[in-house]
Amino acid sequence: MSRIGKKPVPVPSGVTATVAGQTVKMKGPKGELSFNVPEELKVEKTDDGVIVNMIQDNGRRVRSGACRARRSLT
Questions:
Q1: How far is CA 27 from CA 6, 42, 48, in A?
Q2: 30 and 45 in contact (C-beta within 8 Å)?
Q3: Does the pLDDT of residue 32 top 90, yes or no?
Q4: Is the pTM of this model over 0.70?
Q5: If pLDDT is split at 50, 70 and 90, which confidence band does 48 have?
Q6: What is the mean pLDDT of residues 25-43?
Q7: What's the rounded Cα separation, in Å, for the pair 57 and 72?
Q8: Which pLDDT band, with edges at 50, 70 and 90, does 60 fall under?
Q9: CA separation (Å) from 74 to 6, 13, 32, 68, 71?
Q10: How is residue 74 annotated by DSSP?
Q11: Neighbouring-strand partners of residue 52
Q12: Are 33 and 19 in contact (CB under 8 A)?
């Protein structure tokens, strides 16, 4: 993963992030967002934000960074 891909996705104040298995839910003043993360990736909620890591490097599909493109609601 790239250096940017290794950094946690920050969750702004006023936005709540919930991680349940492979489902990430964000709720903020502008609405709600929910999406499923591919099985090849591990997602977890920390104090710094939401972290997405590869479970194992299985090829280009995992390394594409598609999950990083989905930003939290602000």
A1: 23, 21, 17
A2: no
A3: yes
A4: no
A5: confident
A6: 89
A7: 25
A8: low
A9: 21, 8, 11, 16, 9
A10: -
A11: 43
A12: no
Nearest to 72 by CA among 54, 45, 53: 45
Between β-strands 16-20 and 41-45, what pairing exists: parallel, antiparallel or unpaired?
unpaired
How would DSSP label each residue in 1-12? --HHHHS-B---
- Structural tokens at position 24: 């990430």
Q: What is the CA radius of gyration of the chain?
A: 12
The pair of three-digit structure tokens given for residue 21, joined into one six-digit string: 């298995």
> What domains lie within the chain, and their CATH numbers?
3-61 (3.90.930.12)
Residue 67 has which token pair? 């999950």
Q: Hey, what are 26's tokens?
A: 């964000």
